[in-house]
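General statements about sequence and structure are easier to judge against a single worked case. No coordinates are needed to read the tokens, only the vocabulary itself. The sequence in question and its structure tokens are set out directly beneath this paragraph.
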Amino acid sequence: MALKFSFNKKGIEAGCDEAGRGCLSGPVYAAAVILKKGFKNSILNDSKKLNKKNRNELRDIIEKEALAWAVGIVTEKEIDEINILNASFLAMHRAVDQLSKKPELLLIDGNRFNEYEGISHECIIKGDGKYMSIAAASILAKTHRDECMSKLHEIHPEYNWKQNQGYPTKAHRAAIKEYGPTEFHRMTFTLLPKEETEPSKEKSQ
């Protein structure tokens, strides 16, 4: 199914999406993208449906050809303070704050959002597979966050964040069990399954 360019035919729209919501470590990233009218790209899609090469190629195209784009970041410490849902919304707000043009409508990937003052919004479930601007935002959020996690990997290579980007893979959790959490882990998340964090009855007796 071809992606739609706009929700309304009139007015400036910005697509918004986040990356890293389900991770155990690292910040959450969000992007806001306003595409020029007439923008077309045959491979543009939800970032999860694209390979790394295509995502990076599209990132360059979007950043060069978009009418405006920006990326917002919320750190793991902020995530622990306000919870991941609010952090995702805040990251989107921070992205919109930085746009060089003010949109009249925000297209939000998902079913919930904290209202951005002065701009109306529409929540669209699986919007990154329906609207071009949201798909573009998903690509920028994902590629910018992956870049960040590769840099954090250099600080703590034992967690292999360059490969898993902080998601809860078996190898990532095994590393947490062996080395403990770092300053980049989200301490309010379940870093290890309960049975691995609680002492057994035999040991506690």
About this structure: The mean pLDDT is 94. The CA atoms of residues 117 and 162 lie 36 Å apart. The radius of gyration is 18 Å. DSSP finds eight helices and five strands in the chain.
